[in-house]
Design brief:
This protein is α+β, with helices and mostly antiparallel strands. It folds into two domains: 2-122, no CATH class; 134-386, no CATH class. 48% of the residues lie in helices and 18% in strands. The protein has eleven helices and 14 strands. The strands form four sheets. It has a five-stranded mixed sheet with strand order 5-6-2-1-8, with no helix packed on it. Strands 4-3-7-9-10 form a five-stranded antiparallel sheet, with no helix packed on it. Helix 3 (195-216) runs parallel beside helix 6 (272-299).
């Protein structure tokens, strides 16, 4: 079945595309307020559609230039291919005036199937069905992608869900054993709380960051087959994989803290709201770093080899196992450039009543905003390469 769309205006030229596998480029009729005003052959190059439509050359676009003054705001523009049924997207559309001689198109909502005696059926956008707002569609797409990631990552293994929660617990227990042996203290308390709880406040945020951005590496390239669905965008994959990493570790955090509370171990919940704020900033920062890394990995897969030693260095300079006070004071001015150190230290300060830190909420917020800006800029500039 042939598909097509009205893309928009460039000056007085109407842009669109029409394509059916195995058929020659069709001739598209342009209608203005119900009257045919011209024709255009859909054989112009559209490299942005070659992958999405699986078109061998991408030459499926058409252009039609309206005479000056013929198109006015509020006019109705339609396209049709005589004698052929076409699944149109954004057709028909209403003309909007954006500036002097600058027009745009607004799809006409709730367009019913319209069969003309001398033309094809005009079918509404098959990606945006009448009565389904775009936020609802986005919600359904993200939910479907999330369930797909959960099944692929953990559902294929018998103990997949168990190990997702048990991995940080085992590491925390190992750190506690090492701490008790080295300090030779039977109680194992650190800053007035159980040692395992103290290590948990650094280990779980680290797993959120490390698992989040590691799962983002190569994600958009590995899921290129999904982009044939119009509703799925490359950035959706990054969002879902990062969200899944944070959801799993958050569940582990709730399970472990609940177990400590029931067992009577000394814990502290000084400012849970501040800890949630830290996790929110860490989530946005992780997603931004994951998007940046994925862009570079997609451009050159050898970037993975460089990230492995960087990952190990960050593990030891981000305060995962120890606090900033335990590090040499001469190194503090250099270590404080690391936004992960600020995140983990602020998390401890939010949960432990006896702990104070010189780290700054402002610095962490600025780093998050800068990372998000850089990530979205790189994503926008490399979008075609990411999907082709």
């Amino acid at each position: 079945m042939m598909r097509g769309a009205l893309s928009g205006f460039r000056g007085r030229r109407l842009l669109g595309w029409a394509y059916a596998p195995g058929q020659p480029p069709p001739t598209v009729e342009i209608l203005l307020n119900g009257a045919v005003v011209g024709q255009a052959v859909a054989d112009a190059p559209r490299p942005d559609l070659r992958l999405r439509l699986e078109h061998p050359t991408g030459r499926c676009g058409f252009e039609f230039e309206f005479p000056e003054g013929e198109v006015q705001e509020g006019d109705l523009i339609e396209a049709r291919v005589p004698g052929c049924e076409v699944a149109w997207t954004r057709n028909p559309c209403k003309v909007l005036l954006r500036g002097p001689s600058t027009f745009s198109l607004e799809p006409v909502p709730h367009r019913k199937l319209d069969v003309k005696p001398d033309g094809p059926a005009l079918i509404p956008d098959f990606g945006v069905l009448p009565g389904r707002p775009r936020p609802i569609i986005l919600r359904d797409v993200l939910r479907a992608l999330f369930l797909r990631e959960v099944r692929n990552r953990y559902g294929a293994h018998r103990f997949g869900y168990f190990w997702a929660v048990a991995q940080p617990i085992i590491l925390v227990m190992a750190l506690q054993v090492v701490h008790v042996v080295l300090r030779k203290r039977g109680d194992g308390l650190i800053y007035g709380v159980d040692g395992m709880y103290f290590f948990l406040l650094g280990v779980l945020p680290w797993f959120m960051f490390a698992n989040g951005y590691h799962q983002c590496m190569g994600a958009m390239k590995a899921n290129r087959g999904m982009y044939t669905y119009r509703q799925v965008q490359p950035i959706d994959i990054i969002l879902i994989r990062c969200t899944l990493a944070f959801v799993i570790q958050t569940i582990a955090l709730v399970v472990i803290v609940t177990g400590f509370y029931w067992s009577g171990r000394p814990i502290s919940l000084a400012e849970p709201a501040a800890y949630l704020a830290m996790l929110t900033l860490l989530y946005l920062f992780t997603m931004s770093v994951g998007l940046i890394v994925d862009v570079f990995v997609t451009r050159n897969d050898d970037v993975r080899n460089f990230l492995v030693p960087v990952d190990r260095v960050l593990l030891f300079i981000s305060g995962v196992f120890f606090t900033l006070d335990a590090m040499p004071r001469e190194l503090h001015p250099y270590l404080l450039w690391n936004p992960l150190l600020h995140a983990f230290e602020l998390g401890r300060a939010a949960m432990l009543e006896q702990y104070e830190t010189p780290c700054s909420w402002g610095y962490l917020s600025i780093c998050t905003v800068v990372a998000m800006t850089l990530a979205l800029t790189l994503y926008r500039r490399n979008l075609f390469r990411l999907t082709s």
